[in-house]
Amino acid sequence: MIIANRAPPRRPLVSVTAPASSTQVRIAFNADLVRQESLQDVRWMSIDDKHQRLTFISTPSREYQGPDDGYPLMPDGGQKKLSKTAGKVLYVPKDQFSMLARQAPRRYEPEIRPGRAGPEISINLGPAPAADSERVHRAYRDLDLHPVIAEAANKLYLDGHYANAIEAAIKALCGLVRLHSGKDLDGADLMKTVFSPKNPILRFNDFRDRSDRDEQEGFMMMFAGAVTGLRNPRAHKIIKDDPEHALGSIAQVSYLAKLLDDRAKKA
Question: How far apart are CA 90 and CA 92, in angstroms?
């Protein structure tokens, strides 16, 4: 039997680039998306400023905003060497995008659904990252996050939804605590019940002396504090987190998740 190394399949993606030196926005459909959806004449675009959403369609719709002839979809020269089916690209005037304030390329996984004359392909632009966020995003990618926390937070964080990423990470942590403890509670009540220094369901040590009880109480407060200090405010009001604060918060939640797994294995 011969086992050959093969590159992982590329995902269908849409990339959006808004160079500061240009008056146009470059929107590119990669070759896999073109192949998967047999894109030929998808050259009309609806713009939803309120929800920061773009939808590409084959025929104009009531929501469509732009010139009568639409925007021509053309071969993407940057994709020609990647496959026999080249990617497609269109250029749109920047003034069509009141919500667009980014410079470097950003890549989006599209939502695809059947349309009247072909597929409708939508992307949510979301908030633009801060100018210095690329450095922080690289640092985030280098984190060795707990796999459950990474699954919950990664896409939200890298798409610039920092508050949502923190909230999702803590929800995932609560799920892990319920899984390991068997307690069907939530929030600070869950943490104080499971890690109580008086009668803990899950212990972080052998519970032999005052020092062990103090350690147990300290970790209980850390778990409860993650819920009350990080999740609850973001669940009840709109908070705009910056990427560096979100990185530190998610790293802390990941540490707690790893600590929990370690104690559960020793139990």
Answer: 7
pLDDT digits (tens, 9 = 90+) for 239-255: 677 788 889 999 999 99
DSSP 226: I
Judgement on whether residues 116 and 171 belong to the same structural domain of the protein: no
Specify whether 92 is located in the same domain as 198.
no
| Residues 140 and 39 both lie in one domain | no
Short-list 161, 53, 160, 42, CA closest to 97: 53
Q: Do residues 3 and 51 touch, judged by C-beta distance below 8 A?
A: no
Same domain membership, residue 244 and residue 185: yes
Q: Is the dihedral of CA 36, 42, 47, 48 positive or negative?
A: negative
Identify the residue whose tokens are 């047999």: 38
210's enclosing H/E stretch is: helix 210-225
Flag the least confident range among 14-28, 30-44, 90-104, 236-250.
90-104
**Residues 27, 93 contacting (CB under 8 angstroms):** no
**pTM score of the predicted model:** 0.52
Q: Distance of CA 14 to CAs 28, 44, 143, 258, Å?
A: 6, 15, 26, 35
d(CA 75, CA 8): 24
Q: d(Cα 230, Cα 224) in Å, to the nearest integer?
A: 10
User: Largest Cα–Cα distance of the chain, in whole Å?
Assistant: 78
